[in-house]
Amino acid sequence: MSSRSLYLKAVSCNLCEMASGVPEIHFYENELNIRRAIEQFDLQNLDPALNICDLSSLERKLRLWQKLLPRIKPHYAVKCNDDPVVVKFLADLGTGFDCASKNELKLVLGLGVSPERIIFAHPCRPVSHLKYAKEQMVVNGTVDNEYEVYKLHKHYPNSNLIVRFKSAAKEALCPLRDKYGCDAETDAAALLLLAKALDLKVTGTSFHVGSGCSEVEAYDRAIEKAENIFKCGELIGHDMDLMDIGGGFPGTDDALFENIADAVNTSLQLRFPDERVQIIAEPGRFFVETAYTLICKIHAKREVRNKAGKLDTLMYFINAGIFGAFADYFYYPEEVNPELYLEDAETLPKFKSVIWGPSCDSLDKISGEFLLPNLNVGDLLGFRNMGAYKMPIASPFNGFEVPETRFFRKK
Ligand SMILES: Cc1ncc(COP(=O)(O)O)c(C=O)c1O
User: Fold this and answer.
1) For the chain, N or C: smaller number of CB within 10 Å?
2) Atom 14 (ligand 1): residue with closest C-alpha?
3) For residue range 222-250, what is the model confidence (pLDDT) as tens digits?
4) Alpha helices (runs of H) in 69-121, residue ranges in sequence order
5) DSSP 8-state symbol, 290
6) Where are the domains of the chain?
């Protein structure tokens, strides 16, 4: 069964049943060797494409987080990769969770995670989702405008309101500045006052600097705004004790993560020295991006020649594209680097090459200009760091199936 159908099964809320259908986890020693996995599982005959997920990489990421950000409890952002195996693995390691919808709540709660480990971090929630959170006693949730405050007053007055404000990084792969978050200077105080007038509890504040943030200073700027909102909330009479610094942490660049962690720790020491304030974060990409390698197969090929008949470009068509496992390339095309599994790839002559996804849409092109040897139909291409914001968005457009996932773990 594909991990996607497992997910659908999970959210149709028969999670006990799902537990017995969990895919097999393959164990490896020392390091996960993709070439060996290809031979072991006969991936040469692969169709559709296949994700190889190294669960141990999630554990390594958690240890790195705990070492560099010991005060901050990570609440994994389920939207980033909602494969039940991944979510369960993190649940067993003891992380908290950021859920954005009723189905994400169902998935996480169904794995036995207690509601206190969850933040319902969506500031504009449908009433049916709020009612579900109330039934399940998931009390912490974000809010960023007065309509939502009234909605909570009507449907979930005993919940804890976390005021989300805007504070965008100057550089991020996926900026989040337009859609959510109130203005920290002009709107936050009004929301705090309104909540007080309606006898609602505001217990904290949150922000998201943008996914894939590469501006280290962005966090301090946001934490400074959070400090002001805390002071304002306390003056109004709210018992503020939760600060949620959102996501945005890099998935692949550990040196950048270390710099961000230093900046965050310094800022927290200065602005939130009181250890009674609980600090949480909502990392998504940080945990899962490096855990996945996507293995694709070339199923068709074309030679493009110039008028003189000389070879100009080689075109390859593979079994995953931007409507499938490369889904987020549509939003922020990053160049990818295909890995080859040929013995003599380094020494073979290279040609200008284009890689297309399988659908009929001409947008369905994998970004980048590639110099590759003359490959054959049936050859495999590997793409590393494919764990974040791919599979939850992937669709079977044109009838091309989304990849399955095989799970590996260090012995
Ligand atoms: C509210 C919220 N929290 C957390 C995340 C996860 O962000 P990242 O993957 O950058 O850590 C997102 C991503 O869009 C988000 O919208």
Assistant:
1) C
2) 211
3) 999 999 999 999 999 999 999 999 999 99
4) 84-93, 102-110
5) G
6) 3-53+291-410, 55-288
